[in-house]
Design goal:
The complex is a heterodimer of chains A (262) and B (359).
Chain A: H1 7-13, E1 22-26, H2 31-42, E2 46-51, H3 54-64, E3 67-70, H4 76-90, E4 95-98, H5 116-148, E5 151-156, H6 169-189, E6 194-199, H7 207-212, H8 224-248
Parallel strand pairs in A: 1-2, 1-4, 2-3, 4-5, 5-6
Chain B: E1 14-18, E2 24-28, E3 41-45, E4 48-49, E5 53-58, E6 63-72, E7 82-88, E8 111-114, E9 117-124, E10 130-135, H1 139-149, H2 164-167, E11 175-177, H3 189-197, E12 201-207, H4 217-220, E13 227-231, H5 233-244, E14 249-252, H6 254-267, E15 273-277, E16 292-296, H7 303-308, H8 314-326, E17 337-341, H9 345-358
Parallel strand pairs in B: 1-17, 3-12, 3-14, 4-11, 14-16
Antiparallel strand pairs in B: 1-2, 5-6, 5-8, 6-7, 7-10, 8-9, 9-10, 12-13, 13-15, 16-17
The chains are: A alpha/beta (262), B alpha/beta (359).
């Protein structure tokens, strides 16, 4: 038999834990997601990203050197076709970044003026969609973890997940639910080698932020490429930590508390 | 035995345990870990299932066809470009496969239009329904086309159309199977946690489970087709460690039996890597690796049933079938399960004596 590609050797052979890592990123054509796609490719990862607009997906896939997949995370029917394309194209999956987000009603408004449908859309995009995609990809992530000692799911969170900001109700409530899902996933499945991260990238100069706060002083906002590097550093840290553990403990995974800098 | 009705997995699924001494035990399938021991190793097939049924048109004649992808050249990631396919004429899964009309006369070079996908027949194989095709386009375009246009291969015994989520097991990872590796439906994440707590190991391999029926007796006689598989290094290590320490290897499905026994026959032990399982497992097969198999309940005569004869004597399987019938177990991929321990030497000798006495 011919020796096959072996993810177990990948992460010890390189000082850079992102080299060769198979990464999927949702919401990959604008703001933080686009910065994550570009930065992950630059750091040697093999990247597939998901977004709704075909023309933008094709353009950014070609420019960034990543696989582009057209799909809407808020639509149930899109999830398995998207998951199929991710694992088919990358040949498996080591890291999922649930980044795509919906603000809810735009412009922002108080809960009393928020249409129920706008809350539902925020929940579909920010909670149910990432849950469905994580479930569809759980088998691939667990297979990676069994072989390499670890796999990572990063759910992009927000300070609105824990602080009550007026007018941010739909977004804040949905991000709070996503944050709690991350923590419970971590409790339930870390023994299988998966690490769930729930991280707040901070207030960034992105199209989403411009929709929410049109008159913000952009000079005070974090650049998305800076935030993207910080998130990738956190993923690299989780990979390195788990890799060290899996070597010293003969492959047995241990609990790592879901971290949230909210 | 009763055919599966609903596409969803039954939450009240049952398990018939056929022990090494031939005794039978009925249980809820959720109790599976109770029949395993500390130090055993469960090996499952983590293949995800492709939406391998593609409806479209045979361009030279304009005739409607259904094309079912049935094999790939290898498990290489990213490449679906070259596939072996089985072609039917008009109609869909509601019609029994044996009643489906044949496709128009096919020839190498013919163009096929399958929804968003364009393909060409590269060559005809040894049967007028069996072809090799090449899809046009990049890997991303081919995967997108299959993901959007394809549906799971299914049969008339399940009347409702299946979605991908119906045919992906909870542990589904690499999309290389053409029909679900259905023993995986018996597993869930709660059960994996329970196995871990009890000191029972769990690992996976990836085996491109093929189709179970072509509707054509000549082709059906050739099933299962050769199926590529991949055994990860960690899985090979865990199998060697388990055997060295006296634990049992529990195969989650007939595909796992086929892959592990094929790998062991090549090297004398299970090594990591790629292979293509092309052997048949049956009554004459001497099992080198697998001690216990978890499977669906299958009718006598099917290739799945033949494989069970490597584990249990015909007398025992006959008793088991009578019990499955009497208790109304559900067959097929969405039904109930059986767990078969490899016959013990003393029980095999007993069965041989009974057979001689009867003869």
């Amino acid at each position: 038999m011919e020796q096959t590609y072996n993810p177990a050797t990948r992460r010890t052979a390189h000082a850079n834990p992102l080299a060769g890592l198979r990464v999927a990123i949702t919401g990959g054509t604008s703001g933080l997601g686009l910065a994550l796609v570009r930065a992950a490719v630059r750091r040697g990862a093999r990247v597939a990203f998901v977004a709704r607009n075909r023309e933008r997906v094709d353009r950014i896939a070609a420019a960034a050197g990543a696989f582009g997949i057209v799909g809407d995370i808020a639509r149930k029917e899109d999830i398995h076709p998207v998951a199929l394309q991710i694992v088919g194209l990358l040949g498996g999956l080591d890291c999922l970044i649930n980044n795509a987000s919906s603000l809810g009603p735009v412009p922002l408004r108080p809960l009393g003026d928020t249409a129920c449908e706008d809350l539902e859309l925020a929940l579909a995009t920010n909670v149910v969609g990432p849950f469905r995609l994580t479930k569809a990809l759980l088998g691939a992530l667990a297979a990676s973890a069994r072989e390499a000692g670890t796999a990572v799911v990063l759910n992009v969170s927000s300070d609105a997940a824990v602080s009550a900001y007026a007018n941010w109700g739909a977004y804040g409530a949905s991000k709070a639910a996503l944050h709690q899902l991350s923590r419970i996933w971590q409790q339930e499945i870390s023994a299988q080698g998966l690490t769930f991260l729930s991280l707040d990238p901070g207030d960034m100069d992105t199209p989403l932020h411009a929709l929410a706060v049109p008159d913000a002083d952009r000079s005070t906002l974090k650049r998305p490429d800076v935030a993207a590097q910080e998130l990738l550093d956190a993923i690299a840290g989780a990979l390195a930590k788990r890799s060290a553990q899996s070597h010293s403990r003969g492959g047995a995974g241990t609990n790592v508390e879901a971290t949230a800098s909210a | 035995m009763i055919a599966a009705r609903a596409p969803q997995r039954p939450s009240d699924a049952r398990l018939l345990v056929i022990a090494a001494d031939g005794s039978l035990t009925h249980a809820a399938r959720t109790r599976l870990p109770d029949f395993l021991r500390r130090g055993d190793l469960v090996v499952a097939n983590d293949a995800a299932t492709l939406p391998a049924s593609l409806h479209g048109v045979h361009c030279p004649t304009g005739a409607a066809i259904e094309l079912r992808l049935v094999a790939r050249r290898a498990l290489a990631a990213g490449d679906l470009k070259h596939c072996t396919a089985l072609v039917f004429g008009a109609g869909d899964f509601h019609m029994r496969t044996e009643d489906r009309p044949p496709p128009p006369r096919l020839a190498a070079g013919d163009r096929l239009k399958l929804g968003p996908l364009d393909a060409e027949i590269e060559r005809m194989l040894f049967h007028p329904r069996l072809i090799e095709i090449r899809f046009d386009g990049s890997p991303a375009e081919i995967w997108a086309g299959v993901a959007r246009h394809g549906t799971p291969i299914q049969y008339a015994h399940v009347p409702d159309p299946l979605a991908l989520w119906d045919v992906w097991t909870p542990i589904a990872a690499m999309p290389v199977a053409f029909e679900p590796p259905s023993a995986g439906f018996a597993l869930d994440w709660g059960m994996l946690a329970a196995l871990r707590e009890r000191g029972i190991g769990f690992v996976t391999l990836t085996h491109a489970a093929g189709i179970s029926s072509t509707g054509d007796p000549a082709l059906d006689a050739l099933l299962p087709f050769a199926e590529p598989y991949s055994i990860p290094a960690g899985t090979a290590r865990a199998i060697r460690r388990t055997r060295a320490q006296g634990g049992r290897i529990v195969a989650g499905g007939t595909t796992v039996v086929r892959a592990l026994e094929h790998a062991a026959a090549l090297r004398g032990t299970v090594c990591a890597g790629l292979g293509v399982a092309d052997q048949r497992v049956g009554a004459e097969t001497k099992l080198d690796v697998v001690d216990v198999v978890l499977s669906g309940a299958h009718e006598p005569g099917s290739s799945h049933y033949e494989l069970l004869r490597a584990f249990a004597d015909d007398l025992v399987l006959r008793d088991a079938n009578a019990a499955l019938d009497a208790r109304g177990y559900r067959t097929h991929e969405f039904g109930d399960s059986i767990l078969v321990e490899r016959r013990s030497a003393s029980h095999a000798a007993f069965c041989a004596r009974v057979a001689r006495a009867a003869a």
